[in-house]
Amino acid sequence: MRGRGKLLQLKGSVGTRTSGYQLAEKVEYAFLIIFTVETFLKIIAYGLLFHPNAYVRNGWNLLDFVIVIVGLFSVILEQLTKETDGGSHSGGKPGGFDVKALRAFRVLRPLRLVSGVPSLQVVLNSIIKAMVPLLHIALLVLFVIIIYAIIGLELFIGKMHKSCFLIDSDILVEDDPAPCAFSGNGRQCVMNGTECKGGWVGPNGGITNFDNFAFAMLTVFQCITMEGWTDVLYWVNDAIGCEWPWIYFVSLIILGSFFVLNLVLGVLSGEFSKEREKAKARGDFQKLREKQQLEEDLKGYLDWITQAEDIDPENDEEADEEGKRNSTYSFLSTSVGTV
């Protein structure tokens, strides 16, 4: 009975999931129809390609067009798959092609919002335009990491693997071990029956150290991101003393984090300002162009009215002359008839 209850519960959950999937499919088809109608209306209004302001000559419109075409293509392939396989499954592979791979392009549909929101276009254009300057900053960051990794490799190699053990054993004294020093101003093992010796893997499971160039770069990168850099500083102080290691870490934070990484924000801010000015200039130019077009249309209309006023008196004179000729002809006809 208990197994039957679980089976019924499983069937109910599968049915609920299937109904939810069918509802999502219907909603997807509805949005696809709306997007398709919108695309075709814009193509009719703007033209497809050859007009200077054609639909696909705008990058965001081209993105919308590709999304709609891929959606229609995936739906058509899916329907053909259902007809070929007799409706046995909905996401088959007609001719070896997986329809689900095309359906993955649905994640691009939220990008359609960008084409309707100018402020989002400014932000995305700023990020795209900032790619080259950001690459230069990334190279600068890499240069700083390499320099400090080499310095750390020279100063702290092999210093992070000593800790407090029980005498004549390999048992660590502390639950959260930390480096220690054999002598000098580093941390000493003051508990009775303990000694400082090597053989410990090191902090963070042996990841945080300066034993080779790769781990040194990883540790420097962690410090530049300011994620736990004080812990690394304390571990180095425990290993060799606190007299001068702070100079290395403080200079690393000032140069690598406060200065170099903040250049990223400066570049993004500058590109955003440029794109915002360009967008404003484009808007002002469009308004000026519309105003000039309106003035040209108004001037053409006034010229047409003036020409029409110049033509009307001639028509009036012709009408008067025609009336005089008609009256003369009528008079002569009457006289002839009387005679």
Gist?
This protein is an all-alpha fold and about 350 residues long.
Write up what this structure looks like.
- The protein has 339 residues and is mostly helical.
- It has helices spanning 2-46, 59-85, 99-103, 112-116, 118-129, 131-156, 203-206, 213-224, 229-240, 245-338; strands at 162-166, 194-198.
- A two-stranded antiparallel sheet has the order 1-2.
Strand order of the largest sheet: 1-2
Share of residues in helices: over 70%
The radius of gyration over CA amounts to: 41 Å
> How many distinct beta strands?
2
Shape: elongated
Largest sheet: 2 strands, antiparallel
The protein's oligomeric status is single chain
> How far apart lie the N and C ends?
131 Å
Low-confidence stretches: 1-8, 87-96
In percent terms, what proportion of residues is strand? under 5%
Structural class: mainly alpha
What's the helix count? 10
Give the integer mean of the pLDDT values. 77
Helix/strand order: HHHHHHEEHHHH
Features:
disordered N terminus; 3% strand; mainly alpha; 71% helix; single chain; two-stranded antiparallel ribbon
Layout of strands and helices, then pairs:
Layout: H1 2-46, H2 59-85, H3 99-103, H4 112-116, H5 118-129, H6 131-156, E1 162-166, E2 194-198, H7 203-206, H8 213-224, H9 229-240, H10 245-338
Antiparallel strand pairs: 1-2
Helix pairs in contact: 1-2, 5-10, 6-8, 6-10
